[in-house]
Automatic annotation (TrEMBL):
Name the UniProt record assigns to this protein: SHS2 domain-containing protein
GO molecular function, one term: RNA binding
Record organism: Anoxybacter fermentans
Keywords carried by this UniProt record: RNA-binding
SUPFAM superfamilies, alphabetized: Actin-like ATPase domain (SSF53067)
Record-annotated SHS2 domain positions: 2-199
Top-level taxon: Bacteria
Record's keyword annotation contains Nucleotide-binding: no
PANTHER family assigned: CELL DIVISION PROTEIN FTSA-RELATED, ETHANOLAMINE UTILIZATION PROTEIN EUTJ
Alphabetized InterPro entries for the sequence: ATPase_NBD, FtsA/MreB, SHS2_FtsA
Pfam families reported for this sequence: FtsA
């Protein structure tokens, strides 16, 4: 004999069923409505009041069957379930083949993250939620979507899933009610599981179905695939919203509106009285038009939740509960999900095979869940819903709807599942002269998982009293390296710079600071080093000047029709006493002299000095050789007269011609004084020829001045 209770938000249904050769027979049933709001949305808020109703049902059933009832089968409401979507990834140290164990670890770690996400603040604990099940939404391998990870090769695996949990308080309050009613729990399940167990035929177990229990205040949704429920959800809208739409439109009280709603599919005209006492004759066609919009809104909410859970329309939708009888709803739901009308239907208790009898005072579709609770209890009579195990010596209570495994114990105790496998040490990443480098960490060591001292894995089945040993793996050590491990240091060269002995060697900066070869590398460091090989690189390092300041600018010009060029820079640099190409390799023992040039401009005078243009003439005067400066020049720049201090630009054409020097100017330069009184005649000659004071003197001329 099986005693089953369906403790709902509005009513409590109790029935006693007995196995017969033809199946389970209902031999007694009772339905009692709550007198006050002792329950809200499937959650017991007043344990004593709900226990009183259960005791009343128990007493009436005992009177009917003539024997005491001690054990009861119950179910937690689907609307009490909590779902959480979560993403998790595992990144390996290198690309490798993905195993089933890798995927199992990935999925369970994602479930654990989902469990923790429900405990959103410090007042909650992840263990406040019993794990029910999960459904994978998508896998990714190295950020690419893929159908199945096992056997693939990659470095990073990722999963999106939706996990379902039952708050421990729901189970605890249900147990408390049963205990206050002087009963013990024979079996506990979930309402969606109980319902699906009796309305989904065995031949449909592999189908992808949506089971929707539409009650008065909520619509509970369960998605099935492969004979198992893979996802749950609750929509906080149901039959009451439709009833209230009629009440508001016609000014009816709730009971009258409910009667009107139920009559719309069976009668053409319904007579009712509004709250003012006026008799109304309402055409069913007219009332259905009033319901069209709220029914479509309800269908849209249910349909959207189904699509969110299943990621696509299911193969069929099975509706139960009093709200499923709402006019127009089944058609609207089929249209929302783009399913043929015959793929969305209402299941009733008389559709259940192997069940004899009916529950009095209850719609046939509302009787499915209590019957399902009894049938599920019979099929799982030898399975334990609650088991106690020890994990590392600590007692863990597990609520399981199927066969409990090690993973259930780890989730129930909030044990970090992914830590069973030691994580590789963090890699050390840094840049050397702009190039990204990595030093890998060491591999982790696997942990230990035992059941009763025997090796186990996440899927190992457990039973009441088992002892589980869990030791987390050891993480690998992070990557480590020294500067000298990533920078090649060359043999220093000894040179002399501006008279001071100096070494030219590899110089390394980490995050802008000069470091030594044995300095540990910092994570995400920016390492920059130079090993001077040319004179230019040497001066950049030793003088700490930008490379741009050592770059000379060439000016091309012509001087007296001769093509010339000159380098302009900030520094005058001599290598071993000579100007050389700074990009030549440096040698041990080189002497380098660097002088800063104050002016970056170059004048015609500078060019004349650098190119050694004759700035004087040599003559012989009265037998003595003299050098006379040619201070006066005729200078043309691009055909125009300029001075000797004019700046030269690239492409200039310069003509420099010395102005003629007269005999008189030479006498003035050598400060020769002509006597004021002469005893004879003053005779001047140039190269033996008589000349005057104003005659022009050229380089090499022989001048004589005498009195005869």
């Amino acid at each position: 004999m099986i005693f089953a209770l369906d403790i709902g938000t509005r009513t409590v249904v109790g029935l006693v069923m007995e196995p017969t050769p033809q199946g389970l027979e209902i031999i007694a049933s009772e339905v009692i409505e709550h007198e006050n709001r002792a329950m809200l949305d499937g959650q017991i808020h007043n344990v004593i009041e709900v226990a009183r109703v259960v005791q009343e049902i128990k007493a009436k059933l005992e009177e009917k069957i003539g024997q005491p009832l001690e054990k009861v089968a119950v179910a937690a409401a689907g609307r009490a379930l909590k779902t959480a979507k979560q993403t998790h990834y595992i990144e390996f140290s290198s690309k490798r083949e993905i195993t089933a164990e890798d995927v199992n670890t990935l999925e369970l770690a994602a479930v654990q993250k989902a469990q923790k996400s429900l405990a959103h603040d410090e007042t909650h604990d992840p263990t406040d939620y019993h794990f029910v099940g999960y459904s994978v939404i998508a896998y990714r391998l190295d950020d690419i979507h893929i159908g199945n990870l096992v056997g693939q090769k990659g470095k990073k695996i990722e999963v999106d899933l939706i996990a379902t949990f039952l708050p421990r308080i729901v189970v605890d309050s249900l147990i408390s009610v049963i205990q206050h009613a002087n009963l013990t729990i024979q079996h506990m399940t979930l309402e969606p599981i109980a319902a699906s167990n009796v309305i989904i035929p065995k031949e449909m177990h592999n189908f992808n179905l949506a089971l929707v229990d539409i009650g008065a205040g909520t619509s509970d949704i369960a998605i099935t695939r492969g004979g198992a429920i893979i996802a749950y959800a609750m929509v906080p809208v149901a039959g009451d919203e439709i009833t209230e739409a009629l009440a508001e439109h016609y000014l009816l009280d709730y009971a009258t509106s409910e009667k009107l709603k139920r009559s719309l599919t069976s009668e053409k005209t319904i007579q009712v009285k509004d709250i003012l006492g006026t008799t109304l004759n309402i055409e069913a066609r007219e009332a259905l038009m009033v319901l069209k919009k709220p029914v479509e809104e309800l269908a849209n909410l249910i349909g959207d939740e189904i699509l969110s859970l299943n990621q696509k329309p299911p193969q069929a939708v099975l509706c139960i509960g009093g709200g499923s009888l709402t006019p127009l709803l089944i058609k609207a739901l089929a249209e929302k999900l783009n399913l043929p009308p015959n793929r969305v239907g209402i299941k009733k208790a008389n559709d259940i095979k192997g069940v004899i009898g009916e529950i009095s005072d209850l719609e046939s579709t509302q009787a499915i869940t209590p019957i399902g609770i009894a049938v599920t209890c019979k099929e799982n009579i030898n399975k334990t819903t609650f088991i106690d195990v020890k994990l590392n010596g600590q007692r863990i209570n597990i609520f399981s709807l199927g066969t409990p495994t090690v993973s259930d114990a780890l989730l129930a105790s909030n044990t970090p599942i992914q830590r069973l496998y030691g994580r590789p040490g963090m890699a050390l990443t840094f840049k050397v002269n702009g190039e990204l480098k990595t030093i890998k960490g060491s591999l982790g060591e696997p942990g230990k998982l035992l059941v009763n001292a025997e090796p186990a894995n996440f899927d190992t089945q457990i039973k009441d009293g088992d002892e589980i040993t869990y030791e987390p793996g050891k993480d690998g050590k992070p990557g480590f390296g020294l500067i000298k491990d990533v920078v090649e240091f060359t043999t220093p060269k000894n040179i002399i710079l501006n008279g001071t002995p100096t070494q030219v060697k590899t110089q390394v900066f980490m995050n802008g600071k000069l470091v030594e070869p044995d300095t540990p590398i910092e994570d995400r460091a920016e390492i920059y080093y130079t090993t001077p090989e040319t004179y230019r690189e040497t001066l950049i390092q030793l003088l700490e000047v930008p490379a741009s300041e050592l770059i000379s600018r060439e000016i091309h010009f012509s001087l007296n029709n001769r093509q010339m060029k000159i380098n302009l820079g900030k520094y005058e640099i001599l290598i071993n006493g000579q100007e050389v190409d700074l990009d030549q390799p440096i040698s041990d023992g080189d002497e380098i002299e660097v002088r800063e040039i104050k002016s970056k401009k170059i004048t015609i005078k500078d060019i004349m000095e650098r190119t050694k243009v004759d700035m004087e003439i040599k003559i012989t005067f009265n037998g003595r050789e003299l050098s006379i400066p040619t201070n006066h020049w005729e200078i043309l720049k691009n055909g125009e007269k300029v001075t000797i201090d004019t700046q030269i630009e690239d492409g200039d054409e310069i003509i420099c011609r010395p102005k003629p020097i007269s005999f008189n100017r030479i006498l003035s330069y050598i400060n020769y004084q002509v006597p004021k009184s002469l005893s004879g005649r003053l005779v001047m000659t140039i190269n033996g020829k008589e000349a005057n004071f104003t005659d022009e003197v050229k380089n090499g001329d022989v001048l004589e001045l005498k009195i005869v």
